[in-house]
Amino acid sequence: MQNSDNLKSLHSTSPDLKTLIQPNQSITLLKALHILTVDGKLNQDSRRKLKQVTHLINFIAPLLSEVLVNNPNPTIVDHGAGKSYLGFILYDLLLKQHAAGQVVGIETRADLVEKSKVLAADCGFDRMDFQHLSVEQSITSDALPKTVDIVTALHACNTATDDAIQFGLKKQAKYMVLVPCCQAEVAEVLRKHKNESFGKTPLSEIWRHPIHTREFGSQITNVLRCLQLEAAGYSVTVTELVGWEHSMKNELIIAKYTGQKRKNATERLDAILSEFNLQDLQTRFLA
Ligand SMILES: C[S@@+](CC[C@H](N)C(=O)[O-])C[C@H]1O[C@@H](n2cnc3c(N)ncnc32)[C@H](O)[C@@H]1O
């Protein structure tokens, strides 16, 4: 069956998919990624994943167009790639039609890296590459170019998002598109200094209930990440990726390099670290 026939039958059974699956999108790829079943259906989980990835690609598309104006051969690096849904669909929708430009997936699970390599070869996506590296290792690995254009990290676990920011800073990324996962490190340091924090500030109420400490840890981590990016010369937009009913890990941080460092960003960052007894993490958030 032709792609267009597949698409027609899919849209007739699930009309809402019209907004999720584009006319030029490969149904064969969506099946190979197990987003669609062999019968061309979507289950609840894959619908959610497709929605997240599609929304993210809608945010990335104008950024890539902007990059392409000055660089016809852009590099996009996707950290914590997992099964590389984002990389594959992005390549299919945005890069396939260009003569150049590559997507590199960074992933610590060797089995996923191997599967992605096989799928890219099957699809003829010869400008996709997958590296079996941690995000931290990728910062100094010779397998990656010296500079990259766009860094993405969709639900990269724990501090992998922080490493992705360090990667973007080192590689002078023009854009960083981050949807953080939960980050446990800050909450851990908050807990470590709990007793010193009690009595210092009424904000110590945050330490009374573990769930508040954990959630606050996640939120303050993203605040610190934004300040870190602004201190390094990025302008930052923070928004929701999809409706909250689709994912609890829904914060989207888009950073664009402008070269203009926000004047008080480092000062604010240091003050927050001090206020919450988080000075142990000073190097984590260095710009
Ligand atoms: C929650 S999954 C998200 C996968 C994919 N980005 C997505 O949204 O479908 C996180 C992935 O990051 C990988 N990962 C975790 N820590 C990592 C690290 N430090 N460096 C590279 N990959 C990492 C995990 O193996 C996992 O495949």
Structure characterization notes:
The chain is of the alpha/beta class. It has one domain (48-281): 3-Layer(aba) Sandwich (Rossmann fold). The chain has helices spanning 3-13, 27-32, 44-70, 85-95, 110-123, 135-140, 160-170, 185-192, 194-197, 210-231, 265-275, and strands at residues 75-79, 102-107, 128-132, 150-154, 175-179, 234-240, 251-257. A 7-stranded mixed β-sheet has the order 3-2-1-4-5-7-6, with helices on both faces. Helix 3 (44-70) crosses helix 4 (85-95) and helix 10 runs antiparallel to helix 11. The chain is globular. The mean pLDDT is 91. Bound molecules: S-adenosylmethionine.
Keywords:
Rossmann fold; 11 helices; binds S-adenosylmethionine; 287 residues; single chain; 7-stranded mixed sheet; alpha/beta
What is the structure about, briefly put?
By secondary structure, this protein is α/β, with parallel strands linked by helices. The protein has eleven helices and seven strands. Strands 3-2-1-4-5-7-6 form a seven-stranded mixed β-sheet, with helices on both faces.
What is the average per-residue confidence, as pLDDT, rounded to a whole number? Answer: 91
Shape-level CATH architecture: 3-Layer(aba) Sandwich
Number of domains: 1
CATH superfamily: Vaccinia Virus protein VP39
- One letter per element, helices H and strands E, the order comes to HHHEHEHEHEHEHHHEEH
| Largest sheet, spatial ordering of strands | 3-2-1-4-5-7-6
Q: In CATH terms, what is the fold-level topology?
A: Rossmann fold
- Could you describe the largest sheet, including whether it forms a barrel? 7 strands, mixed
Distance between the termini: 52 Å
The count of helical stretches stands at 11
Q: What Rg, in angstroms, do the CA atoms define?
A: 20 Å
In total, the number of strands is 7
The gross shape turns out to be globular
Structural class: alpha/beta
Low-confidence stretches: none
